[in-house]
Amino acid sequence: MICKKTLLRAIMLPRPAACLRLLHIHRRSWPLVFLLVALLLFLSVSGYLEEFLSGILSICHSTPSHVPSPQVLNVPIPPFLLSPASACSSPPFLLILVSSAPSHRDRRDAIRQTWGSLSSSTASASLTLFVLGVPKSPEERAALMHEAVTHRDIIQANFTDTYRNLTLKTVTGLTWALEKCKGAQYLFKTDDDVFVNTVLLSQFLRGKYGLQYMGRLHWHVSPTRDRDHQHYVSHEMYGDSYFPPYCSGTGYILSHGAARLILEQVRSGPWLPLEDVYIGILAQAAGIAPSHVAKIAGSLTVAHSTCCYRIMFTSHKLTPKAMQEAWNMLKEAGSHWCPSVLLLYCKLFSSW
Ligand SMILES: *[C@@H]1O[C@H](CO)[C@@H](O)[C@H](O)[C@H]1NC(C)=O
Ligand SMILES: *[C@@H]1O[C@H](CO)[C@@H](O)[C@H](O)[C@H]1NC(C)=O
């Protein structure tokens, strides 16, 4: 607890009073102070400061007490209706699980035609699959079945596809991955309106090892107690005033081992309806600390420019048209050079 509070205080920018005190120092030192402030601003806006600080979280966490067991998982989810196991016959390095809704056919097609078209045999060594529940209307059910037969990229379990069932959707996708795609070393959970630079993400992950739970970190978030709110959480569901630190559901990485330890913590429902928070709670119970990745945009839509798609791992809230444009920019860029400091530009000119 004390550890968390100190961390939070460290993240906050210096207060004006502290700055004024700084200004009393000799004029000759001003350029140095200016440089330091600029550096601090760069580090905090770019997210690198948070990335560094989040590394300390793992010290606060107790490490997992046991090595993941290789046995079959016992996760209480409904049976699978669609299971594209053949897609994993040659396991990808990175398996991307996209949470999608039945009516989002246009978004799924946009992903299939763009970043999702990359396969295990390309530089990204990734496989993209969609995770859905069962649509309410018979027409939608038939359309989805037809789509699944055509593309063989849909994982479906027997639950009603609703917003409040999103947690079930995530748990379904992760369970499927661990049971039917055992060779995938990393899992990436994302949504159907997110652009993912899979090649860059894979390159980044090749340098990692051990248990990993990474993404856009959210610290010190309190549950919404307003009954009419989409994200309402009752006291029975979650009693504490704050959630543990968790990674934004728009895109988080789990190494195979971390996913297994997390799923071992799943108990029978009802589950917290916020899937990303729920994974954060399970991770904490499993003793896995989340870490911040500056290049994962979270809920930001980064500046719509070539370099941003080359530098960032994700960008949120892209329409199918913008998704196609982003993909074309990325493809046409070739070896176009983009210095990393442009990350600052991508974030400063981003929107929510
Ligand atoms: C799916 O669940 C429904 C009830 O929720 C049940 O009637 C149906 O038989 C189940 N289908 C399969 C294939 O398990
Ligand atoms: C979630 O899915 C289950 C199984 O189909 C269903 O019984 C339940 O009503 C759904 N929950 C919500 C909140 O939609």
UniProtKB/TrEMBL annotation:
Pathway: Protein modification; protein glycosylation. The lineage of its organism: Eukaryota, Metazoa, Chordata, Craniata, Vertebrata. Belongs to the glycosyltransferase 31 family. It is found in: Golgi apparatus membrane. This is Hexosyltransferase. GO terms for cellular component: Golgi membrane. Its EC number is 2.4.1.-. It comes from the Eukaryota. InterPro entries: Glyco_trans_31. It is a single-pass type II membrane protein. GO terms for molecular function: hexosyltransferase activity. It is an enzyme of class 2 (transferase). One of its GO terms (biological process) is protein O-linked glycosylation. Keywords: Glycoprotein, Glycosyltransferase, Golgi apparatus, Lipid metabolism, Membrane, Signal-anchor, Transferase, Transmembrane, Transmembrane helix.
